[in-house]
Amino acid sequence: MIKKQKYINWSMVVSRLILFISIQSFIAFIFNLLGKDEPWIESTKWWPVVVLIANIIGIILLSKLFRQEGKSFWSLFRIQTDTLKKDLINSLVIIILLGPIAFIPNVLLATIMFDDPMIAMERLIHPLPLMVAIISGILFSITQGLAEIPVYFSYVMPKLRERGYSKWTAIIIPSLFLGIQHIGVPLMFDLNYLVWRGFMYLPLALFFGIIMYRKPRLLPYLAIIHVLMDLSFAMMLIAESY
Question: What is the DSSP string of 105-152?
Fold first, then answer.
């Protein structure tokens, strides 16, 4: 039982990356059956759908794992009224810090890898059928807030501490995998792109990890912030769609 639980802990660390690649591979397979000339390239354009499906699977899996331990996954998002004022102030500080932590590494790496940050962004923004872009863009943003931070910092991080790993090991391992998972959103076989996607969010992931280690009760606020961040990206996608 202990070995099985240990396996589940480590498999959850890589679960999202595996889901991203597996779902994109399936979409590429479908495009191949449809006779597309470059099915893998075509599949990269559908990454919001890939993330949405992966998030739904991840939420179902997390709910099951928490239920097996006699806990409720959804209780993670319960706002604690006794610390509401303090938590709102902390959330405001997080929002202020979030901009440079998320933006600067992204632009800096994109400039190093591609000379022009816009070239990097063009790898991500592709027109989709409008309704697909609207539905997947909005729902992927919402489910990101529910699925991403919890798997790494509400499930994996506490399990690592329970297994005797040090504080910083428990923070760094899930943070590292949260950052690296982005190479699969979408997966492209280009070294410059992989470096950019793999490292652009590492500082942000570590920032989230430290917050969640010190104040896990802030998860509902982090989830809302995460949703809003992704919604802004979804709006860009929708604007480019047809």
Answer: HHHHHHHHHHSSHHHHHHTT-----HHHHHHHHHHHHHHHHHHHHIII
Q: CB count, 10 Å around CB of 143?
A: 20
Calpha distance 48→44 (Å, rounded):
9
**How far apart, in whole angstroms, are the C-alpha atoms of residue 153 and residue 161?**
11
Taking the C-alpha atoms of residue 113 and residue 74, their distance in angstroms, rounded to an integer, is 40
Check: CB of residue 132 under 8 Å from CB of residue 153. no
The residue count of the chain comes to 242
Tell me: the pLDDT tens digits for 19-72? Answer: 999 999 999 999 999 999 999 999 999 999 999 999 999 999 999 999 999 999
DSSP-assigned letters across all residues of 65-94: HHHHTT--GGGGG---GGGHHHHHHHHHHH
Q: For 102-122, write each residue's pLDDT tens digit.
A: 999 999 999 999 999 999 999
Q: What is the pLDDT of residues 165-183, one digit of tens each?
A: 999 999 999 999 999 999 9
Q: Residue 87 corresponds to which tokens in the numbers above?
A: 């938590």
User: Rounded CA gap, 217 and 222, in Å?
Assistant: 10
For the record, the structure tokens of 50 come out as 């890939």
Give CA–CA dist 175/55, Å, rounded.
18
